[in-house]
């Protein structure tokens, strides 16, 4: 008989996993303590914007293969339980395992013998080894199975993963085989390893992406000085199969709910282990600089000087989310740049297709008409790479501005299109035009 799967936590990872496992043909019970969330999910209302997820939830509910509940005791009937609990950074950037430490003793009293416990949320290396002690029993096999889901692509990433990592001690444990079987319908390559390697592999992947992005962001700065084009440099690098073309687009810096949190956690873990992970520390430092550089470029574009004053200047922002395809503002470079511009006295109007308001920032007026951001603006700043920004009527935007200047921190827009629409254009990793003071 197919395994009955339990999921603890109906957040972004837990909900995606629950709906996708149901899609793969398993019976799934998903537990969350938030009553209103569980009620809403039971009605098929999905609180996160993930393409394909509402359909999978609706199907699972209709088939009876997906059940949402607040009753943890229902996990007694399950064979494999996935922990998908939040591990947010504490004040110093270390993962806070408070929720996990609270839930595991409860599960220890509920799960039946033979049940496999799987850690899916990102946890520090060594956590799987601590689980039996936290559970209060040593008879349940523990498996580390980190997730690699991208926001906005979580369903696709779950059903068609690049790899599935399964860590057990020892790697050949029967529980590893049981979890591996669950993913068989995806056809993905499986890495069977020990728990510490599985846990580290997750941090190592995200930290590497962060290093790659900071590398290209520094290259962009060099290109601006040397009169080179970072797009051409990155294209050449990306054709080398050892480097690959992904994650080579410079921007306002990397953000979101994972990369900043995981780099910080890995740095703390390396420090505690007495290992100098200088290259990662530098990637984080460069990321702060990249955000500051974007602010300086806006000041240069508006005032003619990277340190010029923005006091009382109207600036239009296109994009607030940390990347396109999501309304997520967590550690968004776009938001950080908006906050910095507001601190410099700019009057900001912003449009983002997925953001209705920014409670953190009352200095920015969020509008749902992209053309309103251009009204009387001394510059338009592209902060998130929404493809639909390309299709705006840029001549109409130019006509609405006080002065047609674009700072494109994502190199989203075609320079020739912008020139034809009458814009002076400041990209990233390309030589900047001569800037003239506004007013
Ligand atoms: C990331 C990892 O990709 C995923 O595997 C992990 O499980 C969670 O963290 P996500 O946070 O959804 O996923 O964002 P991702 O698409 O990786 O982008 C991260 C940041 O890098 C964003 O701020 C994005 O704008 C930036 N980025 C990405 C660039 O600036 N240039 C690029 O070429 C790619």
Descriptors:
single chain; about 450 residues; alpha/beta; Rossmann fold; six-stranded parallel sheet; 14 helices; elongated; binds uridine-5'-diphosphate-xylopyranose
Topology of this protein?
Blueprint: E1 4-8, H1 12-23, E2 27-31, H2 35-42, H3 53-63, E3 66-69, E4 80-83, H4 98-110, E5 116-119, H5 127-135, E6 142-144, H6 154-159, E7 164-167, H7 174-182, E8 190-193, H8 195-226, H9 230-238, H10 259-272, H11 278-303, E9 314-318, H12 333-343, E10 347-351, E11 364-366, E12 379-382, H13 394-400, E13 405-408, H14 415-420, E14 424-426
Parallel strand pairs: 1-2, 1-4, 2-3, 4-5, 5-6, 7-8, 9-10, 9-12, 10-11, 12-13, 13-14
Helix pairs in contact: 1-3, 8-10, 8-11, 11-12
This protein binds uridine-5'-diphosphate-xylopyranose.
Uridine-5'-diphosphate-xylopyranose (UDX) binds at residues 147-151, 206, 209, 213, 247-249, 251, 254-259, 322-323.
